[in-house]
Amino acid sequence: SPKKAKKKIEGGSNVFSMFEQTQIQEFKEAFTIMDQNRDGFIDKADLRDTFAALGRLNVKNEELEDMVKEAPGPINFTVFLTMFGEKLKGTDPEETILNAFKIFDPEGKGRIKADYIKEMLMTQADRFSQEEINQMFAAFPPDVSGNLDYKNLCYVITHGEEKD
């Protein structure tokens, strides 16, 4: 009954008030991408498929189990949002952005191949246009080896460029 549904929402967590509507929409898009089998829950198989889509194969089963164990139960969208809320609480914007880039840099080198990040930005989630890619690389050109220094990029995004 509608009365019961309303009660359930009121009794639920207040996690949706932690984020702006646009942020919730972005988290929903990320959740949908990660929910590879479209069952409304993220499980180990979904995580393995997500890592594979990002080019990281052979993820250890223990690593996936540890991720799933961070949740208090099955990971639906509300649980997903709550977990992100807890992870982001107290983090500064630079740390949040760095953590996003670290997904593409499992060795933690602080650099990502420019071609790789371009491909990811143009083919995944909220896709970048060629123009947006050109703007990014104009502002943050890759080094001579074709790597993007994302640590510097994150610093400049969050602190503004250092003026001499």
UniProtKB/TrEMBL annotation:
Record bears the keyword Acetylation: no
Domain (EF-hand) spans: 22-57, 92-127
Keyword annotations of the record? Calcium, Metal-binding, Repeat
Matching entries from InterPro entries are given as: EF-hand-dom_pair, EF_Hand_1_Ca_BS, EF_hand_dom, Myosin_RLC
MF terms in GO = calcium ion binding
Q: How does it assemble?
A: Myosin is a hexamer of 2 heavy chains and 4 light chains.
Name the record gives this protein: EF-hand domain-containing protein
| Species this protein is from | Chloebia gouldiae
